[in-house]
Amino acid sequence: MWVRKRDGNRCIITGSTTDPLVTTWIVPPFFTSVDYDGPVSFTPPPASENIYLKVNNGLTMRQDVADLFSNNDIAIDVDDNFRVVFMQEPSKLCSKKLLAMIPSHISLPRGIQEELWVDLRMLRWHLRYTLLANGAADDVTLYYGQGKMAAVIDKLTGEDEGGDEVEDMEDLDNELWKSPIGQIYFAWLVFTKGMKD
Asked: Record's superkingdom (predicted)?
């Protein structure tokens, strides 16, 4: 009841008030007992804080959106202005009608008492777990090995031929750019160039 009241009896993502609405956990309380042992940075919020059974660990959503959220098909990136993040091609996850209702960014209700406000730590944790569940698991060198990563990057940049590292990617037709490591490196170059601009 409190979650729906806080959210204005509307879906926090689509804004819909007419479709059947449900209250869903951001981080289900049973996640405190998940025993995860793997090579990925994965630290859930501390159970000792008793934050799982509070209003600020819940969201109001349409049932179909809640299913996407609970199944880790979508998440909310708090640190990118509350961007809605799809974990695969959106058209594979939902109908065109629903997709048209999901904005690129959401806005949380304003003027809410602090004890009822959505816990942003929970949204951040949900995003991290969603990325993990969908295979975006930590450092790529764990998968490909540092030596193999370095060898491919050296070939792509001309370092293996004794040349200086190239700033521009002159030969995008090179098959190495199409390899998983090449694509990761390309994405990194684009990302870092964007940060410099």
From this structure: Eukaryota
